[in-house]
Amino acid sequence: MPVSLPQLPSATHLRQRLGLLFVLGASITLSVVLITFRVFLTQELTFVFLLWNLFLALIPFGLSTMLGLAAGPVRRRLLLPTGAIWLLFFPNAPYILTDLFHLMPRPGVPYWYDLALILTCAWNGLMLAYASLIEIQGLVRRRMGTVIGWGFATAAIVLSSFGIYLGRYLRFNSWDVFTNPLVLFYDILDRVLHPMAYPRTYGVTILFSAFLLLGYITIRQLAGLHREEEGR
Fold it and tell me: Is Transmembrane included in the keywords of this UniProt record (predicted)?
């Protein structure tokens, strides 16, 4: 009985993936340089926490990239456990958008510099989120179809938006699933059972879900339009 070899990514696919890694790497490097220069200029660690946030945003991207590059049989075995970990850390990427809350005039640094610094970090978080979600949605679509793929992507964005609320306002993080599960479960259950008592919970979740989903659809449409133009 012939043994089928795992299908390797095509040269074009690898070239595109390397191009994406190069662009994201350059953009993240810009954020790191801006943060480092600010520390050098002010001798203060005001925005150093953004480096940690960027690292957390890289975790779901790294997991999705690993799944995308894995051979078929290995990918099938890893999809569920890795996908669960991916979903747990995925909100960390778009969460960086809310770091704009920290923007305010500060002595020693121009206001526009801090604005650019936070915006580059927020942009990187958003692009890492979208790139990661595109990869995972593609894996789900190939196994379960287009409709289920889009259903998964939408659910991931909604859960991520709720995770943004949990992180920004209740100060939970992904690790609390393991280190503080009872308190986390109680706070979530309380908001599910008493929605009218927590309008901010649902306001943040709904608005961020709408914004992130429309942004994601826009990115997918632009990518599709690009492929269509190349095919002419």
Answer: yes
List, for residues 21-71, the tens digit of each pLDDT value: 999 999 999 999 999 999 999 999 999 999 999 999 999 999 999 998 886
Distance CA 225, CA 222 (A): 5
Type of residue found at 192: V
Where in the sequence is the domain holding 125, given as residue range(s)?
11-230
With a cut of 70, say whether residue 204 has pLDDT above it. Answer: yes
The total number of structural domains that make up the chain:
1
Q: Is the pLDDT of residue 156 over 50?
A: yes
Query: CA 107, CA 11: separation in Å to the nearest integer?
Result: 51
> In this structure, are residues 118 and 102 in contact, taking their beta carbons and an 8 Å threshold?
yes
Q: Residue 19 burial (CB < 10 Å; 0-12/13-18/19+)?
A: exposed
